[in-house]
């Protein structure tokens, strides 16, 4: 086995800082979302993904892929959201095992009411703390990592 390429002190500090920042940022934005709208982070992800499609519907498999969730996990979460009237399921024509997830009027209202508070939280805890150059750098580095992680090798 080859010797690992250990992080130097500066790299290790940056990595630890990133991990701590990510955990604290996710926690704070999730808390704000729940306090402002009563939605969980997962609820918001489902509703925002559906609201950004026309006509507010996606196949369960496509939604699971987008959210990086298993179909089973998403299906259980959707059942709870369906009980709250936020989404509905329709059969998928030509695929007896497939289903289409549909944003209900209540779900659309919920995401429309939550979005302004959510973006305010994102601004308050991240975006407004950065300069334009830092936002450009964040955009560049996040997309470089996303490309690496989503491109088959």
UniProtKB/TrEMBL annotation:
Residues 11-147 form the HTH marR-type domain. InterPro entries: HTH_MarR-typ, MarR/SlyA-like, WH-like_DNA-bd_sf, WH_DNA-bd_sf. It comes from the Bacteria. GO terms for molecular function: DNA-binding transcription factor activity. Gene3D superfamilies: Winged helix-like DNA-binding domain superfamily/Winged helix DNA-binding domain. GO terms for biological process: response to stress. Pfam families: MarR_2. PANTHER family: MARR FAMILY REGULATORY PROTEIN, TRANSCRIPTIONAL REGULATOR, MARR FAMILY. This is MarR family transcriptional regulator.
């Amino acid at each position: 086995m080859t010797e690992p390429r250990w992080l130097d002190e500066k790299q290790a500090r940056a990595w630890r800082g990133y991990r701590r920042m990510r955990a604290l940022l996710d926690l704070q934005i999730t808390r704000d979302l729940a306090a402002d709208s009563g939605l969980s982070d997962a609820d918001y992800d489902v509703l925002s993904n559906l609201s950004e499609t026309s006509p507010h519907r996606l196949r369960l498999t496509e939604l699971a892929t987008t959210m990086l969730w298993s179909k089973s996990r998403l299906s259980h979460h959707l059942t709870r959201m369906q009980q709250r009237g936020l989404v509905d399921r329709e059969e998928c024509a030509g695929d007896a095992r497939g289903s289409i997830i549909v944003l209900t009027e209540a779900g659309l209202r919920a995401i429309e009411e939550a979005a302004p508070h959510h973006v305010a939280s994102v601004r308050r805890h991240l975006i407004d703390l950065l300069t334009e150059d830092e936002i450009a750098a964040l955009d560049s580095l996040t997309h470089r990592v996303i490309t690496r992680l989503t491109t088959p090798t």
